[in-house]
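Lab notebook: predicted structure, single chain.

Context: the supervisor wants predicted structures on file for every construct in the current expression panel, including those that have not yet been purified. This is the next one on the list. No modifications to the sequence; it matches the entry in the shared construct table.
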Amino acid sequence: MRFVATSFACASLLAIVGCETKSPPGGPGVSNKTSITEKKTQTDRSAAGERHTDSSRTSGQNSTERHADSKPGTESSTERRGDNNAGVQNSTEKHADSKSGTENSTERRVETKTVVENKADTFTIKAPTLSTSLKQGEKKEVEISISRGNEFTQPVKLSFTNIPAGLKVDTTEPQVKTDESNAKVWVEATKTATPGDYTIQVTGTPETGKATTASMKVTVKNN
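Prediction complete. Output recorded below exactly as produced.
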């Protein structure tokens, strides 16, 4: 019962004042790590008969390359399947030999992940999500906060993207100094702004190290 009551209270408070979105860590303590895995198989085409393979992906880039070998009766092909959102690149190399009736294939998976190597030298940014509600022609101040690790002492430059027509974001101090933990941002809805819910991307970029991005939601209402 205590858990239910607490959850209900949090949900009620969320509806009133909104919540915060926290970015993944950024800074020198964060790096990209790439791992490669391979799987090799051999198929007897004469025994298997005709083969038909279907594959589909919702994102990324797919391509197939075929190479005719100088040796008669051989053919090679390379199929690449990329997923930019997941940081994954898959490729399959096939080598068919009509004389022996065999097909050798190598499936390779290259995956890039963000790894925190030194948490003390990282930072995150937070932006309010549900609390910024604007009427057409209204302007409000929003606070973007920065949480720093013990070793992270760099200034962070803020930039805003994915700003829809009819909304304006003005920053008097686009760079959060080393001794500061937040920045004030003015968000304005013009008189012709279309009512609706919007998400603006807030990116914090340090002098060195990896940048990071959080989402800031804005709701425009009729005047």
